[in-house]
Specification:
124 residues
């Protein structure tokens, strides 16, 4: 996994601009396994396994596919996610997102047009 620092000459995801401390998994990357980080992560490709970002935000870009057990501070979903999500602060599911699984979080936003199948547990 490589870190990319924001550079005006590089194209950026419309969902979230890159900033220092953000790890980007580009659209051609396919990863299977476990990921643990203490920074924000942007997934534009495919990931299967387990994701742990205790103090970080996981952003799944439009067109990305994630199948994982997820533990994060914040989830921002624009693409597809299958699995259980535990978000310590909040989960945001946009109108382009498809979520299939359970979400455990104190705050959740599901936009009109989002596809959601699963359960929601509000936990402080």
């Amino acid at each position: 996994m490589s870190k990319e620092i924001a550079n005006p000459s590089q194209p950026q995801s419309p969902e979230r601009p890159l900033a220092p401390g953000v790890t980007r998994l580009g659209p051609t990357i396919i990863l299977n396994g476990e990921m643990e980080a203490h920074e924000d992560v942007l997934i534009e490709g495919r990931f299967q396994g387990k994701i742990t970002l205790p103090p970080g935000t996981l952003t799944v870009a439009r067109g990305a596919h994630v199948e994982a057990e997820v533990r994060v501070r914040t989830l921002v979903l624009h693409g597809e996610l299958k699995g259980t999500v535990r978000a310590g602060e909040k989960a945001v599911i946009s109108e382009t997102a498809e979520m299939n699984g359970d979400v455990i979080t104190p705050k959740i936003t599901i936009a009109n047009g989002a596809r959601f199948t699963g359960g929601i547990r509000m936990k402080e």
